[in-house]
Write a structure and sequence with these properties.
alpha+beta
Length: 263
Amino acid sequence: MNLLDLQTYYFELPLYAKVQYSENEEDKIFGLMWSEIGINAYNPTIRENTTYFIVIPKSKHFLLSIYNGRIVTDLYCSRTKEIVTVISFLDTKTKTIQKIGQHPSIAHFHIAKIKDYQKVLNPEKIKEFTRAIGLASNGVGIGSFVYLRRIFEHLLENEHQKAKLADDWNDELYVRSKVVEKIELLKNNLPSFLVENKTLYGILSVGIHSLEENECLQYFETVKIGIELILDEELEKYRKEQKILDAKKKIGIVNQQIKNKKE
């Protein structure tokens, strides 16, 4: 994931995650502050994706090497004219940039989207997902990983309980297996994205036990997207099942009406 991408930096990257850049990427720093390209991102007010544009300041600092410190950037929604203000800190000595303030917060943008998963996540896990985003948006990377891992484990255990009902299921083998092996045992029940990306759980565990806060913050969006893709598959499955049930019900009603006419 390119952390200097406009959409990623302003609408995905949590506060205080330091982004390292090289000399040949200085033009990307300029782009972050003064790009005239529209940014496609979610607007929680209208609950849809929209286009944001950076408010270009009257005076630009063309020489990055002599500019160092706090930068305030305003973005406006092309549809609602709402303003998003982002405060960044640029350190040209260490060649790092980080967001140190944002209003509305990153959590404000993402928590609204989580409500879509209420069909496949119970209220407790929705709260945990919300906490994960809230912690990350306030610069707490390791804690956010803890909640994401709980959601991952919950999704796995849900399918485990269903698999136990099968006559040929070996629960003793499952219980003593490692998580990657458990995923393999449940591969016919789990979303394909989870099966194809078994290492996601390992990333979460390493993050909790071995990584620094800043590293977890940098990786948070990638891991969150992984969890969302798993939930997206579950949601699509749920909607298809509901559509089938609805169709069966309607077909039954039509069939009964035709029978009544014949009688």
